[in-house]
């Protein structure tokens, strides 16, 4: 709580990395319920503009090195839940 939280995600792809590569981060609260997209990346980062993580997610990854990590600023106990990282690099999924 209070410090930046790093959420790491690494990937490997058999296809060359291109601007078609997409990274999605989704979140499900600990109590369950609706999944929400908190971040996506396609050539440039697109942090969420709505919801509890608005203005608190930053891109710290580097797709050229297989890193799709993000950071959460000022995490709170209420942020507890499951975070999912999904990387698609067409034609490789």
From TrEMBL:
PROSITE patterns: IG_LIKE. The lineage of its organism: Eukaryota, Metazoa, Chordata, Craniata, Vertebrata. It is found in: Membrane. InterPro entries: Ig-like_dom, Ig-like_dom_sf, Ig-like_fold, Ig_V-set, Myelin_P0-rel. It is a single-pass type I membrane protein. The keyword Transmembrane applies. This is MPZL3 protein. Pfam families: V-set. Its main location: membrane. Keywords: Disulfide bond, Glycoprotein, Immunoglobulin domain, Membrane, Signal, Transmembrane, Transmembrane helix. Residues 1-93 form the Ig-like domain. The keyword Membrane applies. One of its GO terms (cellular component) is plasma membrane.
């Amino acid at each position: 709580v209070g410090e930046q939280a790093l959420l790491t995600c690494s990937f490997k792809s058999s296809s060359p990395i291109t601007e078609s590569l997409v990274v999605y981060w989704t979140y499900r609260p600990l109590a369950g319920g609706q999944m929400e997209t908190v971040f996506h990346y396609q050539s440039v980062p697109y942090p969420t503009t709505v919801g509890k993580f608005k203005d608190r997610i930053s891109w710290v990854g580097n797709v050229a090195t297989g890193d799709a990590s993000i950071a959460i600023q000022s995490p709170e106990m209420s942020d507890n839940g499951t975070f999912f990282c999904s990387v698609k690099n067409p034609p490789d999924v």
